[in-house]
Specification:
Helix content is 26%, strand content 23%. By secondary structure, it is of the alpha/beta class. It is globular, with a radius of gyration of 20 Å. It has 13 helices and 17 strands.
């Protein structure tokens, strides 16, 4: 089958790879009709992880069941399904408690598994014509038959639940004011989710004009950090108090204000300045224990200079970690079905698999309005 294969920093290629097969009675094989490029994929694409050439990328996958293992009980050939980026067993201590992003079964020695991602287990990615889904009864979410809302439903694999998760981590409640740092796909989903949860005012901080415009279009207040300190800009619009809650949707590759260099802790420290005393921070943005391309020796070891004293002084609560997609995807799916949510506003490009290399390059450079790319390996 054809798949997107990592070749080295800033290079992917479409290559023929081995077809997946049923390896366990609980497996299914899915013919992939939609698979999205994630900002997290860019960390590997840029050589900023320990990823080795040969990985098939793709953890945001939707498609049609083609074959089922003999132990699968709830799925049939022809079912349209979307899979959480988390690979989870459903029965370990963490999965039983709802922490499916930290499954203790699927990736021995590490809490959590995912498709097509470094250190996240032996699960081939879905930027390919087919993908194997283990523990399929648990990991597949059924969708309505047909082709409708395809670009909405594929976002249930990761970014819509992850944006919603940022709100859960920050305990966003009706009436809250919220600051979201980052207007990439996850940031826009976090801001959108805050609006769905009844936030009274949502600020979105970024520097890319197209992304700030999308933030404006969904009713949030864009803050361009190239025009001045974003925390100060937000305090000016909140009677000097700051917001009730804050969400980091950027992670460790954050850009220094006014300079063309990285400052890995700047978003965390900006949120400490932005959120009022006794508020809460949600951090779904990715941080890693080692970063080969870090700007200094400490950053390369995942050690960042965070204003912990100020965090403590203000009595801020802190929630971190990748999204437990299964906790949210069913009710977010139902909101899409009932036209209560339409997350596909964030999708800027839908392309055939053959254009993946160009799409990665343009998405990485934030050019030509690239905010979210959905690839279609096969027809729906």
């Amino acid at each position: 089958m054809r798949a997107v294969v990592y070749k080295g920093p800033f290079e992917v290629a479409i290559e023929e790879v081995e077809d997946p097969r049923i390896q366990h009675p609980n497996d299914v094989l899915v013919r992939v009709t939609s698979t999205a490029i994630c900002g997290s994929d860019l960390h590997m694409y840029e050589g900023r992880t320990a990823a080795e050439p040969g990985i098939v990328f793709g953890h945001e996958n939707l498609g049609v069941v083609e074959e089922t293992g003999e132990g699968v009980t709830t799925l049939n050939k022809g079912d349209r399904v979307v899979m959480p980026f988390n690979v989870a067993c459903g029965f370990c201590k963490n999965c039983s408690a709802g922490f499916t992003g930290f499954c203790l079964t699927v990736n021995p020695g590490f809490a959590g598994g995912a498709y097509g991602y470094v250190s996240m287990g032996p699960y081939t990615g879905g930027q390919a014509e087919y993908v194997r889904v283990p523990y399929a009864d648990f990991n597949c979410l059924k969708l309505p038959e047909g082709k409708e809302k395809e670009t909405d439903f594929v976002l249930l694999a990761d970014i819509f639940p992850t944006g919603y998760h940022g709100n859960e981590l920050a305990d966003v409640r009706p009436g809250d004011t919220v600051a979201v740092y980052g207007a990439g796909p996850v940031g826009l989903m976090a801001a959108y989710s805050a609006m769905l949860r009844g936030a009274s005012k949502v600020f979105v901080v970024d520097r890319v004009a197209e992304r700030l415009q999308k933030a404006r279009e969904i009713g949030t207040i864009p803050i361009d950090f190239t025009q001045g300190n974003p925390a100060e800009q937000i305090r000016e619009q909140t009677d000097g108090q700051g917001t009730d809650k804050g969400i980091d949707a950027v992670g460790y590759q954050a850009q220094a204000q006014g300079e063309d260099r990285e400052e890995p802790a700047i978003v965390l420290n900006s949120l400490v300045d932005t959120v009022r005393p006794t508020g809460a921070l949600g951090i779904p943005g990715l941080y890693v224990p080692s970063d080969p391309g870090g700007p200094d020796e400490q950053a390369k070891k995942g050690m960042l200079m965070v204003a912990v004293g100020r965090l403590f002084e203000k009595g801020l609560r802190l929630g971190t970690g990748q999204c437990n997609v299964k906790r949210y995807n069913r009710h977010l799916r139902d909101m899409i079905i009932e036209d209560r949510a339409k997350p596909s506003f964030v999708v800027s490009h839908e392309l055939p698999l053959d254009q993946a290399s160009s799409a990665y390059e343009k998405f990485d450079k934030r050019v030509e309005g690239y905010t979210k790319v959905v690839l279609h390996p096969q027809a729906a």
